[in-house]
Amino acid sequence: MDWQFVFSQALTQAIGPTMLVYALGAIGLNLQFGYTGLLNFGQAAFAAMGAYGLALSVVAMGLPFWWGIVIGLLAACVMALLLGIPTLRLRADYLAIVTIAAAEIVRRIARATVWSDTTGGSDGMRGFSEPFFEMIPWDRDTTWSFLFVSMDNGRLAVDFGIFELQYSYRDTWVMIVGWTLVAVILVVMAFLIHSPWGRVLKGIREDEEAVRSLGKNVFAYKMQALVLGGIIGAIAGFVFALSRANVQPDAFTTDFTFYFYVVLILGGAARIFGPVLGAALFWFLYNILAQGLIQAISADVIPPSVIDSTQVGPLVFFLLGLGMVLLLIFRPQGLIGNRKELMFDVR
Amino acid sequence: MRRALLLLSAALAGLSLCLGVSSSAAAQDAYGIHGTLDDQQDQPVEGVSITVSDASGAEIATVTTAADGTWAVPLDAEGDYVVTLDESTLPEGLVVRNCKPQLEVNVTGDRTALFPLDTQVDGCTPGESPGGGETPSSSEDESGEPGEESSESEDAAADDAAADEVGEIEGEGGATRAISLLVSGLHFGLMIALAAVGLSMVFGTTGLTNFAHGDLVTFGGVMALLFNVTFGLPVWIAAIAAVVLGAAFGWAQDWGLWSPLRRRGTGLVSMMIISIGVALLIRFATLFFVGGERQRYTEYVGQPPWDFGWLVISPKEVVTGLIALAVCVAVGLALVFTRLGKATRAVADNPSLAASTGIDVNKVVRLVWTIGGALAAMSGVFLSISDGVKFDMGQHLLLLVFAAVVLGGLGTAFGAFVGAMLIGVFVQMSTLVVAPELKYVGALAVLIIIMLTRPQGILGRRERIG
Amino acid sequence: MSDDVKAGVAAAKAALAGVPAEPGAPKQDAILTATGVRRAFGGLVAVDVAHIEVQRGAITALIGPNGAGKTTFFNLLTGFDRPSRGSWEFDGRRADRMRSYQVARSGMVRTFQLTKALSRMTVLENMLIGADRQRGERLWAAPFRWLWLKEEAQNAARALDLLERFKLADKRDHYAGELSGGQRKLLEMARALMLKPKMIMLDEPMAGVNPALKQSLLEHIKDLREEGMTVLFVEHDMDMVHEIADWVAVMAAGQLITEGTPDQISADQRVIDAYLGAHHDAAQH
């Protein structure tokens, strides 16, 4: 068993492109759920809006890349408005059911064969990411080395001696852009949350009737949180689509949303850094378990009769699901949450 | 009309395409196309010849399927390829169900190409050439994406059933089809109702929106599979065992999880998210033990239907439908006339008031969970008798169950029943005008519209504020 | 206490002196006038008030047996529920079409029967959220601290003054969820004052408050009148009504059955019947 490899892989993924998608999606949810108490179970649809907005405008309409980004963001805004205007005045679980249904509608429409000439049906779309990767400021044959960081033919490698992180030419670019986005969004979020505006959001989470009785237009604040969180979800969708250079409808299932929640709860809701920490830990755990099990199976540490390699995925997700349930029961505040703050349950 | 027919046939073709998407999780870097040939009972088909050619039509390789039904053609480069199955090499009686023995595949890695085989074609004419631009049933192998792990295949049970039925009566008059769809809608409605009544009662008594309820349905289907296939018992015994285990599972969930959480005063939102975790647990446990393929019971699979001329229906549907109806009526009567039933309604109406009149709220809730678990398991078994067991069958049903519960007014068992029947009929009947693959979309759109216009449901009372 | 106190009471008494003790009696200077307010739930008519006027600067109590529709009427007036029909004016402006937050902004601020302290926020945060029309509560201004820091400091100073007055200053950094029931009532009242209301609507301010705190709560309510605020409150406790109310309106079965000074009301047979009738019903359950 090559533990060094397993560990390196897990660390690589813990800050890699996929983790960034989950971090961004969960940051959006954090604004909606963590701070405002909105139960958006359709974050996958907001990501789909971003991903498909970009793909459709670039591939099907032939628009420039940046137009695709703008259209993706607008699509997320429109969806937030469409879902929010009717439901935000109703009880919290209504938004949950409406968003989960809307997300499923979006996915089924995206995979429908009726429009597969345009959307590619269940196969999805590709061919929209080239302009993004053409922006990479270094060449494919760039080679340099600085301390423990080196670039070899465009690939980034970080060597910590015991373990080594490696990223492909494209992944490196996705990560640079993705982490920049995370940093910018977190800074803006921190300013927003620690302002009177953020205080109103938290008030709404605690008791919206009370906030309403104090002369705040609760509906408008909820809508602002839903739209902003949805836009961040769309950004997650961009990173997701670009990092894989394709969009596929079945990536945007309700499970996608649920894992955003797992990530958020793992890291701690209503904490600025919660989602990032949660996403990193989630992907670290996923990879260390999955890679570890696969290694163990191929090295015959675990006999194939007990578990074969196709069962590793379900098993790991089972364990992560179990982890989430236990976490919610025994440590609902997440990794960096404040226990005291959660002691008074408001609902 | 012409357009509707076109849409319908296109959608039917697409629907059957959805059926065979691989669930292999092994990632490969090399280029290639591979697949596994199974018949309608998931038995591998050997010795079928498959040819892969490039976009210009030049043949690259011809292979025959192995004893386990697998075949693979390695390729040198990305690009568009054409995969052709030689129908003359198929075993006697088998045809490609969607009449598309030729698939166009865009290869960017190792891709799967699947041909759904069956004893009859489904909504298409044999010998038809593959429609231009139609996407083949293929999926890219990926690993490590939770989003995909559970979504390889689509459109659970109901689609299958509808496809079968519509296929059978294709070409006959619109009225006959409407009747068949109405009947299958009523059947589907009863299946939804079994799940919806339980969900609704749990919501009514505890306020919990249980996202794991769909997976209780799967649990029933899987337990019957265990008794039927693994232990070799007849389906009817397996069904009873599954319902009993479903009840036990419901009881145990409340005893071990929900009741302690209520005692701790955990908030409803936290409980809702915990229920999502429970749903994932059940789903992935099922995937782990049962695998990602659709599994069928050993009996009633190819049951010959009764043909009344104006209606074609299989006996199993009649039997399961009648049992479901009887059970729903029994639950309804019990709620109205028995002491415990009255207590249940009292708790749903106002828990603290009910408690003050001497009703043991926890006992009532435990009972509701037990009955809910049993009913959901029954729904799962019945759905599986028609369409087989799949790990995500309950997940796909759940949204329709929500729709039913919301439609009828949250928290009332009778409303849930009416809502379920409406949703079931609506889903099936909507295929008269929309593509079957979009029928869930229609149902979910109705759900949203109902929530917006009449949030108390069609039967519920407007909630009093303050 | 001081002469001020007497001034407030005296003014209220004088204003209500000539008002006849009958339902819907016109007042000298009504801050709130409601006509034909009706709210039905299904077939059940919860509120059906033909006419009511509330005197500015006075403390008016709204009493009645359980289920008389007092809280529903409160919810209607403050925009937390929509009437089946009816209209009312607050301080010269039509208020029946306003949403609840607009009602609060126009100067009619309410509290709740079950206190709604924002549990996972500190006492000071609870107070600051009450301040009206803050620039920093606008999304566009929120990230730019310099735009609202000064305003925030002023609000904080005012909040601390109020907390001082309500004896909560030493709890300023505690979570509101840690406070006792009575302290939460005080916090809710203090928070409502952050809006500088013209009229304050208290829904059962004494419910769940221990006797020690009751007296100080009463004093606080009296102080509000001295500051020129109008108070309308729902209460069961007749002793308390006697002690602080200038005027009493009685509801039963959704209707306003009578009005008058506390002394007139205690002598009114209809009120006694309404209460006794309700008690008889309750005893049979």
Characterise the protein shown here:
The complex is a heterotrimer of chains A (347), B (466) and C (285). With 347 residues, chain A is mainly alpha-helical. Chain A contains 15 helices and six strands. Chain A has helices spanning 3-14, 17-35, 43-60, 65-87, 92-111, 116-119, 130-134, 169-193, 196-206, 208-213, 218-244, 254-267, 274-298, 312-330, 339-342, and strands spanning 125-126, 144-146, 149-152, 155-159, 164-167, 246-247. Chain A has a four-stranded antiparallel beta sheet with strand order 2-3-4-5. In chain A, strands 1-6 form a two-stranded antiparallel ribbon. In chain A, 59% of the residues are buried. Residues 343-347 of chain A have low confidence and may be disordered. Chain B is α+β, with helices and mostly antiparallel strands and 466 residues long. Chain B contains 14 helices and eleven strands. Chain B has helices at 2-18, 146-149, 157-169, 174-206, 213-230, 235-264, 268-290, 315-337, 339-349, 351-356, 361-387, 393-408, 413-429, 439-453, and strands at residues 31-36, 49-54, 59-64, 70-75, 79-85, 95-96, 102-107, 110-112, 117-118, 306-307, 312-313. Chain B has a four-stranded antiparallel beta sheet, with no helix packed on it. In chain B, strands 4-1-8 form a three-stranded mixed beta sheet, with no helix packed on it. In chain B, α4 (174-206) packs antiparallel against α11 and α5 runs antiparallel to α6. The model of chain B is unreliable at 1-29, 125-171 and 462-466 (pLDDT under 50). Chain C has one domain: 3-Layer(aba) Sandwich (Rossmann fold), CATH 3.40.50.300. Helix content of chain C is 39%, strand content 22%. Chain C has 285 residues and is of the alpha/beta class. Chain C is built from ten helices and ten strands. In chain C, β1 (30-41) and β2 (44-55) form a beta hairpin. Chains in contact: A-B, A-C, B-C. Chain B: One of its GO terms (molecular function) is transmembrane transporter activity. Chain B: It comes from Glycomyces artemisiae. Chain B: Residues 139-163 have a biased composition (Acidic residues). Chain B: One of its GO terms (biological process) is amino acid transport.
